[in-house]
């Protein structure tokens, strides 16, 4: 038997040339995609910044090919959300004249190479980017870009369009066909010249192979017309190969049929034994498998020739039928069921992990709690032992000290005071040197020395001998870092244990703290303002504000801060506003501070300028909030301030302010005052001229609710503020960090009246 020719696969990487792009980023090139390399390029194509999608690029293959798949890879930070691949088949002419068909789609193409399977034959490939990626910091314009593009396919022989003008395209047979049709010959019998001994039209083959042979004959005739003898020789050879392949296929089918008939006849013989029947059946089965495999290989060989010459049968094979609605619905249901199953499994795993994590955390918390209890117990035992030892050592040290040591130390400090010029350096510089020098070194820069007149004024007040020349000069520096360093150093100094020279004599230190706090609170920087408030808080608390300081000095020292804090509360900076309000309330919790000063401070707007209903809303709102906290925390003391004047000049006109927040806070102040003043305040509200009925109705309803809830206690005038509390210990709260002030509300403070006038009233 002669040797059969086997068609080998010619699939390879198909070279191509870039043709056109709808837009291109400056500095990138579409030509770089045609380089024969498998490494991603950085200067390859990228769409323009402000282009509109869809965007497309077109490439032309170097020869007509059967395309199997494409490999795409996006550039970094330029990933491709959705892309479509179109194939155009055209031998000559522009890429615009070619008809394109959709061959495949792809989604979410990133910096990893992505293979898109497509199927088709053509010369041009159009890649359409349907939409751009979302905008990010590294891709602000939502661009797409390609770093790698490769085409996998096999080249095909094709008709190049070269025509020999000496040989006419219309043969003599066609003229005879035309004449016969005009004479009335049926069209089915026109192909009379093909029915000869060399024709395959009526060959004893199956219908699929006959269609293949007919299409190959047409290719052969076309090659003969254009005098492409190389193509003609190849077609004649391939026609014989295909015919021989089908001949072998028919022979195999006949053998398979004969084997089946012999197997059926053997089963009908009853005299054969069962063993003989099994052996015969096994042999027939093996032979049938051999014939089926060989027949499949022959059909695949025939299909390869169909693909090589692109017969009509091959076109039918590659065209995929559109799925029906039922098939699509079934696919959707299957996908939805699979998604629900995956979601259920994922949720179940999350719940199991959460339960395991919760159990593990509870075990860790219990172990941590037991460990902390053991450590606390050991710490308490160790502290008890150390305290006992320390008390014993202190007792022995006190016995060994004598009075002369204290006298010598005091005289030594006095000598340091009088030694040299106090305007150059004094004992305040010595005390603050460990706190100030590190902070000034950290701040950097130099500061100019303060004028001699300013230093003399500070020396006459006694502040310079406490703060020192260096700190007082840095406090007035133009550099905010020096000012911040100075107030921080002074805060650390007063928070440390007191010097021996100030024990029992803290008047000079207290006044110096108030002076430094005043300068810090008037600074424009918020952090320096907060440190000034901390200095004031520390100064108003023991041991600095001790029993040796008269109440008159304390009231005079607090007075400058009242208006300053009220102005800060009127600002729009909510953090400074809340901190200042808390600090202001803390000042008047001190038993020596008179509440009358605060009432006079918030009533200053009624003495000058427009009335509260026409003044700026934030100024009125700040004073009403302060009054509300005063009434809630300290009550109403008729001996300290007259609530009727406050209501007539401040609260009443605020009902007519244009800002709704001012009117609401005015209502709350009236209700708090009603709890102490009773029906007299209610009559004053009803007598206001021009008050809107809805406001009057709201206030009346709220007052009735108060009467129903609390009984007649408030109507009879039983003021909460008249119940004084003699407990005046630690009236000011130490605030460690300023951000905690803004989180606290003064209304949550201990609702006790610590005004000295209340104490006097109670004593009477």
Automatic annotation (TrEMBL):
InterPro entries for this protein: ARM-like, ARM-type_fold, CEP104-like, TOG
Q: Ranges of Basic and acidic residues compositional bias?
A: 368-397, 410-422
List the biased-composition ranges (Polar residues). Answer: 743-756
Q: Where is this region: Disordered?
A: 368-424, 710-764
Cellular component (GO) terms are: cilium
Q: Which segment of the chain is annotated as a signal peptide?
A: none
Q: One Pfam family name from the record?
A: CEP104-like_TOG
- Report the superkingdom from the record: Eukaryota
Where is the TOG domain positioned along the sequence?
A: 453-712
Q: Would you tell me the protein name for this molecule? A: TOG domain-containing protein
Q: What high-level taxonomic lineage is stated for the organism?
A: Eukaryota, Sar, Alveolata, Ciliophora, Intramacronucleata
